[in-house]
Write a structure and sequence with these properties.
Strand order of the largest sheet: 3-2-1-4-5-13-10
CATH superfamily: Vaccinia Virus protein VP39
Bound molecules: S-adenosylmethionine
Largest sheet: 7 strands, mixed
Order of helices and strands: HHHEHEHEEHEEEEEHEEEE
Shape: globular
CATH topology: Rossmann fold
Structural class: alpha/beta
Number of helices: 7
Helix content: 25-40%
Radius of gyration: 18 Å
Length: about 270
Amino acid sequence: MDSFENNRQSWNELTTLHIDSDFYNVAGFRQGKSSLKHIEIQELGEIGGKSLLHLQCHFGLDTLSLARQGAKVVGVDISDTSIQKATELAGELKIPAKFIRSNVYDIENVLDDTFDIVYTSYGAMNWLNDLDAWAKIINGYLKPGGIFYMVEFHPFIYTLNNKAEIADSYFKSKPLESVVEHSYTDKSRVSKRNLKHLEWHHSLSEVVNSLIANGLTIEFLNEFPYQVYNCFPNLKEVESGKWVSEKYGEKIPHMFSIKAKKVGSDSL
Ligand SMILES: C[S@@+](CC[C@H](N)C(=O)[O-])C[C@H]1O[C@@H](n2cnc3c(N)ncnc32)[C@H](O)[C@@H]1O
């Protein structure tokens, strides 16, 4: 089975678990609560009326939250279950949105359009093996002057083991294969089957350079000394919605964000 097929199947199973999790709080979302965090809300700014492509949208909570802010959204994800659930939620809550099931790398077979904004967030990069191809795709879907925005877990975090020791290289050359036993949303066992995940971790320079090499001008790169999701081991909450490493506190980077612009004449 190829890597992406493995990941598609495991994400189908994880999505089923995530829909009912406290972590994703679908009940709150149904009542109007946004799933977006303060960072992307502030850094993205006004998105009303703008067309937005959300890559790796999972089951659509962030995509639909962006739609509630007035963006005209399209969400893409490799997981059939994610796309099915996202489509159901949009229909149930009457939020205009389009969801497409596709591997990011095959998206050009199913989507022929350009957007004001291409967006991706938290826990997306590590499922992609080829950042150069990824950045080319982003560029291809942006209108001239369009904005690419991402907010992600900092790659340094993936060097730490469960005891918060630096156990793995920051500069990873090989894919990481793991058996999926638990989700980050709860500790119950995912499946009796041996579900496998294939991940690729990328250094910050790899991410930035792939965007620069593919026609995007970096407007900012920010690093954050905390997480907005409690989804890594050994974190402690220091204020509502902010978690830091128990061992290193705010001395290490936990997340980063990038805003970049497609070189072109139109401005947003
Ligand atoms: C941790 S979730 C991202 C959650 C995201 N922050 C959100 O908006 O909810 C990662 C998502 O990436 C998707 N994914 C993994 N590999 C992919 C690929 N090659 N192409 C498209 N989606 C992919 C998974 O199905 C999953 O829904």
